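tool_call: predict_structure(chain=1)
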Amino acid sequence: MSEHLAAIGVGPTTVDTDLHHLNVWEGRICLALRLLLLECRAQLNMLQSNYAAARQDVAANVALVMRFPALLNQLRPYVHFQAGQYAHCVGAYQLALAHFSRVRDGSSEQLLVVSAQAYSALSWLALGTADAGKGNTHLLASHA
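tool_result:
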């Protein structure tokens, strides 16, 4: 993947405006695939409780979206979802809630929105405060 990206002019410091217009479509596909591969690797690392490696993969995805906002804008909600999952795994529930809120507000894909609602409800419950679940447990029941 890295060799192919390098062949179309995507290097470590390249941003979306640097790409030649003939390479934009191919660059978008390759970058989306790289994002997906990093997402899968982060999921595996979280499942194995290897949070340091998962954090690096999540950070790499965030960096990709920041470097290529025009090319990867449609994938931004997925990156927020992944960041929310990571934050939930490491106990940063407020941060997870913020990421899941960004997913709900920024995505038109219903399955992703419902998943973010479910994770939000779990994060609220994990907070364990007196009003944490108040008004939020319906998020779990409404889509079950």
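agent: The chain is about 70% helix and 0% strand. Proceeding to next step.
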